[in-house]
Amino acid sequence: MSLTLILFFGFVAILLMVLGWALRRPREGKNLGSDPRWIEERDQCQTNYLPQIRQALAAADYDFLSKRASRGTQRRVRHERLNVALAYLGALRGDFESLLRMARVIAVLSPEVAGAHEFERLRLTAKFAWRYRMIRWRLLTGMTPLAQLAGLSDLVSGLSVRLEQAMKELGERAAVAAELASSMNRRGMDAV
Amino acid sequence: MMWAVNTATGVALLLLLAVRKNYRIYPAFTFYIFVNVVVAASLFIVYRLWGFSSTVSWRIGWATQAVTVCARAWAVIEICRRFLSRYPGIWALAQRVLVACAGLVLLYSGVAVRHQWKLALPTVDRALELAIAAAIVVLFLFARYYGLRPASTDRSLALGLCLYSCFRVLNDTISDRYLFDYAQLWSLLEMVAFFASLLLWTWALRRSQLGMAAEGKLLPLGVYQSFAPQINLRLQSLNDHLGKIWNSEVTRH
């Protein structure tokens, strides 16, 4: 089979696969247009549960248990901690996606967008998705110690506070949310 | 037989465009269908006069093909505009990206072939078709990335144009280079592919599209300018922290 044939058939096959993917309905098809509360909700995120998450991931807590509890209990605790870590990672991803959603909606409804910002966001999204999947995979296979996730809780609280400040700078969050929701309804948009 | 069916379906689609007044919404697409019907009729006469294998027929065939591809490109531009022009910021960005993608694909097509002058026309044709298909796929990616819901008619028209262009690329690659013996079969398959596209377009345009466009208000420019950099900064922070976990883990091993 000649190289030309492979190059063109390969290219068309890739195009068709990408087309099929692009035509699929997004998995998390939460329609922002019908629920403008998402902007307020995203600020609540998992910071409400920070103390519990910190405790669940604390290394000292686990050391204490490993000395006193039976092997079965330790296994159960390890399993539960893994679930907490995964849920936490998922919540971080939720935060990331909320920000992403907001950025996309604002971009779509803006009369002008900067290519640099949009491509930077695309790059960050790809990077985050890759790292998220790798870390999750490592957690599931036991290659990443849970204690390493503890540092993330600082990030979440810091992030939330800074975003809150940024939102206040605008001073019209509710108005923007309502505007976004109504504009999206008028324009027929999904918030994916 | 298939030629007659395609021409009849093309005429029916033109009539449908006229009756439903959709030619006002899709002038370029209507022109493309019109060109197809005219080209089919012209080629029928040309082949009758000079035969299928004559040089005159070959030249006229490729000349009409050039017109058809240009008309298809214009129809694709129209569909792209209908997909995104309601969102001026995104549309301005998409125009640059689509042109860049089409240019890169043309370059790819040029690099991917062995340069033989006798195959110059099929090569150019294939490059244009590939660029059209790639532009439509990128358009769908744009719509998905930004969570836009294009009208189902626009989606169907774009899908038909993309699939037919993909088929033509494969057709040009195989029949013009490797399988001369199967030229008739491939010609038939191409007509079947075009017929399928015609059916898809006819179904999509069965209703009038007039008055379906809804205009919405845009946000003030300042909203994007103040939010976009801040959000990117937050996304970068999240990435940095995930990176810390990842890097420490990699270092540990």
3D structure, described in words:
The complex is a heterodimer of chains A (192) and B (253). In chain A, helix 5 runs antiparallel to helix 6. The longest helix of chain A has 38 residues. Chain A has one domain. Chain A is mostly helical. Chain A is flat. Helices cover 76% and strands 0% of the residues of chain A. Chain A is built from eight helices and no strands. Chain B has 253 residues and is mostly helical. Chain B has two domains: 208 residues; 35 residues. In chain B, helix 3 runs antiparallel to helix 6, helix 4 packs antiparallel against helix 5 and helix 6 packs antiparallel against helix 7. The mean pLDDT of chain B is 85. At the A-B interface, helix 1, helix 5, helix 6, helix 7 and helix 8 of A face helix 4, helix 5, helix 6 and helix 8 of B.
**What is the count of β-strands of chain B?**
0
Choose one word for the global shape of chain A.
flat
End-to-end distance of chain A:
42 Å
Q: Can you write the helix and strand succession of chain B as a string? A: HHHHHHHH
Q: Please indicate the percent range of residues of chain A in DSSP E strands (runs of 2 or more).
A: under 5%
- What is the residue-averaged pLDDT of chain B? 85
Secondary-structure element pattern of chain A, one letter each: HHHHHHHH
Count of DSSP-assigned helices of chain A: 8
Radius of gyration of chain A over alpha carbons? 22 Å
Shape of chain B: globular
Low-confidence stretches of chain A: 29-36
Beta strand % of chain B: under 5%
- As a percent range, the share of helical residues of chain A equals over 70%
Largest binding interface between chains: A-B, 77 and 68 residues
* Biggest β-sheet description of chain B: none
Classify the helix fraction of chain B into a percent range: over 70%
Number of strands of chain A: 0
What is the terminal separation of chain B in angstroms?
68 Å
* Helix vs. strand class of chain A: mainly alpha
- Quaternary state of this entry equals heterodimer
Can you count the helices of chain B? 8
